[in-house]
Design brief:
alpha+beta; 434 Repressor (Amino-terminal Domain); 4-stranded mixed beta sheet; DNA binding
Length: about 400
Amino acid sequence: MPGITASDPTQKVLGNSQYLRYTGRMDEELLAVGDRIRSRMPSGMSQRQLAERVSMKTDALSRALNGQRGFSSVELARIADELDTELYWLVTGEPDPHRVRIAARHSWDASQRIRINPGRRRDDELLQRVAEVYEAAFPEGPSPSAPLPDSASVMREMLGEHFVRNYDEVVENRLRVDVVRLPMLSTDYSLSIGSRAVVILATTPYWFRSNWSLAHELAHFALGHHSGETDPKKSDETPADLFAAELLLPENLITQQDWRRMSERDVAELLWRTGVSTMALKNRLTSLGVQVSAEVVAALTQTTPSLIRANANETRTAIGGTIQLTVRQQQSATRMFPSALVDALQCRVESGAISPEYLAWVLDVPVDDIDFPEPDDDSEFDDAYERVLAARPSHADLEEWLTTNSQPTQ
């Protein structure tokens, strides 16, 4: 592993083979690595079996596990892969501050009756760029997010009333979860970068879809789908959808409405307040077994934008004018990164610690628009500047010149 030196404590574990050959001395750090390996070995797996699978001699593995011999980087990498665990954790006992776990929205393929994400391979490049930006901004790893409540009702209380009005901002400030919006993504994702929770949403004017996705991705964190050794699974999608439904359309809110007397305008206002689509509301009503009027049924057959626009009026409804609808569309369709991330990148660019290309990509501007310190490698200019300084007149020279040139002309 590049970058490790003899002064690095992990050198005893990861380094060249010659360095790692001790004289039989027990070492606490090496013993700790051995203990972590044993803790990840499946029940029934012997040391001989593990040694065979990672191309080590049984005696060499035994001595390494007992602190009498170090591991090479290749050996530990093979062991981490075989035991499906983190190499960083095996070496240090700490979670990797830059480890990335990804959960994606999977659409339902009715013909195959499975959840799919056909754009994942194309999206991976953008997701990798986001991870690289975080590592550039926070070389020691981003600050950890606090654990989220596994109850949608508790999370709703934390977010506060009418949180969908400033959804992204409220999520970042009250839940300590970063929200990123990027164009060109095929779907929405949640990432854990180290211990930091990050939701990445595809830019779209359909703010109601984006709202649901944000609730869905928050559910992945709240339900612990990012906390295991492996990335979240497709089977986590249904629990995340149920959590999102209770977060945005809680059962008590739905059941307290008089659905047999609700008008089209009432439905439009409810959609506006809760930030969901006609389809989401229809599915929620069906799942809760709520009986509704014919007018509600007719309203829910319309598209969300057309229903809300038809009922938007600055003086008569809670929606306000159609300008408010446009504002939501623009916010949902705008590229965005957390302010704290941008500020950290700005500071590191200004200090010369990282390339300005990171900041330029986040701000979506040409790199030439970024102010950053440039190293002065022009030695000829430096030499000329030193000569000018050496040849400049002294204070006494200036006084003599002023005295001479201030005499009256004869």
